[in-house]
Amino acid sequence: MRHAFPGSSATAAVLEDATSSRGKMIRPRLLMMASAYGPDYREARERLYKLAAITEMTHLASLIHDDVVDDAPFRRGKPSVQGKYGKNAAIYAGDFLMSRLCYYCMREGLNESGMVLAKAVEDMCGGEIGQAMCRYKTDVTMDEYLRNIHGKTVALFKACCKIGAMESGCDETVIRTLETFGECLGYMFQMRDDLLDFSTDSKALGKKAHQDFREGIYTLPVLLALAQPGGRDKLQPFMDKSEAGTLTGEDIRLMERHVTALGGMEGAWNIIHAYQSHAEDLIRSLQANDVSSSLLKLIRKLGVA
Description:
Blueprint: H1 9-18, H2 26-35, H3 45-70, E1 74-75, E2 78-79, H4 81-85, H5 87-107, H6 111-133, H7 142-167, H8 172-196, H9 202-205, H10 211-214, H11 220-226, H12 231-244, H13 249-261, H14 264-285, H15 292-302
Antiparallel strand pairs: 1-2
Helix pairs in contact: 2-3, 2-7, 3-5, 3-6, 3-7, 6-7, 7-8, 8-14, 11-13, 11-14, 12-13, 14-15
C-alpha cells in the first residue's frame, strides 16, 4: 500500500521509502481476524480497515526507531531508514508517523480503540527502556525478561486482538479471551525470534547471529541455561567478555554449545509449546467461524522450529 504523505517533499520521500517494504502484516491481520468473532464485524469493516492500517503504521514507526537504537543498516532486506537517510531523519520520520496516527484516530473518532493503542505504545516504550536497563546485567531475572518482552512485543499483539473484538461488538468474555490469545501469540513470536538469533545468519534476520548476546541482551535460552547446575560457571566468562567487547567468534560458538548442552534451547521451545497449547485452547473455546482454522495454523507455524 502506498500513501500520500503531507509535508515537504523530503519528508514525503523518506516516508514513502519506509512504507514501501511490506512485512508479514501479522498485527493488522490479527485485528481483522479477531473482529470476525463479533456480531457487527461486517458493519464495522471500514472502521476496522482504518484501525488495522493504524496498528501496522504504529509497528512501522517503532521499527524505524528500533533501527536507530540498534544502528541497523538493513530492514527486511533493504537499507533501513537510518541507514539510508541518517539517524536524525529516521527519528523524525518515526515521530512524524506517530503524530499522524494520533491525528487520524481523533479525526475518525476512534477514541476507545485509540486509547487501547496508546497504552500499547506506552508499554512498548517501557519494554524497550526496561531491556536497555538490563543490558549486561548478569543477574537479570526471568520476571524482568518476561516484563520487557511483554512491553516491546506482546502489548501490541494484545491490543490488536482487543481492538478487533471491541469494534465488532464482542461481549466482555470474548474480548478477554482474544486479549489473552494475543498475549500468548506475542510471547510465542518474541521467544521464537530470540531462538532464531541462536541459529540464523544475518541474511535471515538482518543482523549477526547471537547479536543479542553480543549486546548484553540475555534472552530466554541463556536465562534457562544459567538456571541449570553449573550454568553460571560456564556462561559467566562469556557474559564478562560481552560487556568488555572482547567476544570472539570462537567464544560465541562455545557459548552456544554450552547453552544447548544445558538445555536452554530445548527449554525455550518447551515454553513456546506451552503458550501454543494455551492459545489453541482459547481459540477452540470460542464459537468456530471462518478465521478459526487460520488462527490455529498461525499458532502452529510459530510453534515449529
